[in-house]
Structure formats: C-alpha cells, structure tokens
Model the fold of this input.
Amino acid sequence: MTISTRLTLLALACAALVAPMAQAAVTAQEAAQLKSTLTPMGAERAANKDGTIPAWDGGYPFDASYTSPAIPDLFAKDKPLFTITAHNEKQYADNLTDGTVALLEKFSNFKVEVFPTRRTAAAPQWVYDNTFANATRATIDPSGVLGPFPKDAYGGIPFPIPKTGEEAIWNHLLRWTTPGYTTTPSLARITPEGKIIPVSQNVARSTFPYYDPKGNLESWKAAGSNIKFVRVDASGPPIHAGEITLQRVNIDDNESKTWTYLTGQRRVRRLPLTCCDVPSPVAGGILNFDETEVYSNSIGRYDWKLEGKREIYVPYNTNSYHQAASLDQLMTAGTVNPDFLRFEKHRVWVVEATLKQDQRHVVPHLRLYLDEDTWIAVAGERYDAQGKIWKVTFNFPTVFPGGPGTIVAGYMSYDLIGGGYFATAYFPQKTQVDLKADLPLRLFTPEALSGEGVR
Done:
C-alpha cells in the first residue's frame, strides 16, 4: 500500500468521524408493532391503567357525505367530569402542563373543564400504509442548513416509532391534515385590559403535495419535495384588506419560499427570511414564524430531547370552540372564554428544545406536548432568558367527519410577561372549512399574487 493511499484512507476515515450521519430507521420487527400493539400512527392501542384513557378503536367514523362548511358540535351532549380551578389545581398537578398551572394561578376566570376522553384520531388507509412504509425507510438527514429533515418519507407520519426529539417534532410538522382545504380564520390580539384588536380576517387556502393520495415517494421527490403550499388572502380589517401572503414549504426548509403582496406598494415581494423568531406578517407581526400552531418552521436552532410520555389534560375534540357566534363571545379578558373549551386526558410525548450555543433566538428554551394519536403539538411553553414561562400555547384539535381526522383548527398564545394573548377562530360559521375545495396549483405562485392583487 502506498503512502498516498494510506493518507487517502486516513482522510476518508477522519471525514466519516466528523461528517453528519443519517439516523437509521426502525427494524421490520419494530415496525410490525404498528399492526398490533400500536395504532397505525404509532400510539398505544390499549387503554391506560385506570381506564380514563380508552383503547383506540379506529377513531371517529369517516363520513364521505359530510360536506357542510360549518364545523359540527359533535359532542354537545357530553357533560364535564369535573372542573379544575386555582383552588384545586394541586390535586391534579401530575396531569397538568406547567403552562396550564400558570394560567390557573394568574387568571381567576380561567378553568379547565375535563370531559370524557374520546380517541377520535383517524386517517385514510393509504396514510396508514405510507406511515408503515416510512417506519423502515425514513431517516433524519442532518445536512440541512436550517436543520435536519426527514429523508425518504412520504404521505404519512415519518417516524411513527420515534427515537429522538428531532423525529418527534417532525411527526408534528408532517402530521395528517388532509390533502387540501380552505378556511376563514379571524386573527385577534386581546390586550391585558380585554380589548379585542382584530389583526386580520382571511381566506386561507392550503394544499399538501406531501399528502397527495395520487402520488408516491419518487414522484414527490422529482417534483421538488414540497410539503405544503399556503396562501392567505386578507379581507379585513380595512388597513390589511387585499394583502396576500404565499408560502411554499419544502422538506428542506432552506428551499422554502415566502412572498407577500402589499396593497400600498402594489408589488409582490419575496421575504428574505421566514424562519424562527422573525415576525410573521400573517399574524400582524405579533407572533413569530415558528410560533404558528404552537410550533412550525425550522428546527435547526435547537437541540431536541425526547423526554418520554405523560398523561395530561389538554384541549381536545374542541368542536365546541367553533360554535361561538363572534369574537366578542369567544375572546374574554385574560383568557379565551373557558366555557367554549374542552379538555381531555391524553397520552402525550414531551419534547424539550434548548437553544444551541452558536445560535440566537428570543426563546432559549421551550417544551412541547405532542398528542400520541395525531402527533399534534396540543400544548407548549416558551421560556425567557431568565427561565420564566413567557408564553403558553395551545392548539385546538377538532374532529372533521369528512376528513377523516382530528385536525388543528385554531390556536392561541398567552403572553404571561407582556400581558394579553393572541388567538384565532373561524368566522363566519357558514364558511368555516371546505375540505374539498378546488385548489389548482397556479393559485400558489407569485405570478398569481401579482395578477390577482388589489390595485
């Protein structure tokens, strides 16, 4: 063996030691659990020890004929089992998030009404099949500029049997949400004094190439590996009417792109940075890009740790939230009107994120609670530099019979330091959600914004 060959081999060996390595998928034997002890999405099929969390029996029944744009109150006849307030919260502390405890102790009007647990999570069989395939083929690619991302995952949960925090958070980011839909969200900021400040009334259209039932892994990768396209057209208040925001989210977030059309400038502009703690124009600059729906966007600024599971009271099957007639009825001083909220006990994965030493972010530490059945981050806490809870966040998992699925429909963020909160709701009720909207891909182009923008 020549000296040059030895040096070459030594260099390759050293490079292998320092180069990022993709994490291995689970074995076929582990994946087989998805057809026995685990649900097709990776949750425990069995009930918990005391039966307060029932066994999963397939989820809420799919109803292909259900096409109403109004979100139904499917569980209106349910009665709360008990109510948690500041006076008795210590009795239930083991099953409460730190954020929920903070809200109970800070706001006298806040309460947690606990209802019987319903494991409504469901998805089409093709999603289950893709999830099963992902279990043994998907890995984490650590080469992303803005953070690691899944490789060789498509059309289902990428890591139904997660081993790391990165895998778990990606399950949330790639959770089942149907191939596409149109919604009419109202975004509002509520001041510490209880004044409602409308941020925007929108028509939001979303389509998910990652969840195209006619696609497959190869065709999706060939088309560019885009996860979703989102277009938000503002219809109010008057100062924002006519504005449009377009996002094309890629599996490698470095390839994601965002454009905005501002009526005052009458131009389409591509935003230079749409990551992390950059304020989001859709939320009026109140929330950052990665605060949407408890957590979204890049994960590369944090180290993620999978802490295990807990049984927690979280918002769930919150169809009642969408029965409010107006923002005034829903957004009360201090907190969202608790009479419209439904909490249930569910098993959740706890994921901790700590800011890397070489990164910057206004939130150095956060904790997320991922529902085992849907992988939705149902709750979260964001901490400031002094280690105090800064923001308490919730998603609202809502049942859509025509999905099928239990899908995020609204979210909120409480600012415990600055005061007030931010929340979303769908108004008017007659146009809340259209799960079968015709959404041609030409709608999700900057050229469409330029041609359709108000002038």
About this structure: Residues 82-452 form a domain with the outer membrane lipoprotein receptor (LolB), chain A fold (CATH 2.50.20.10).
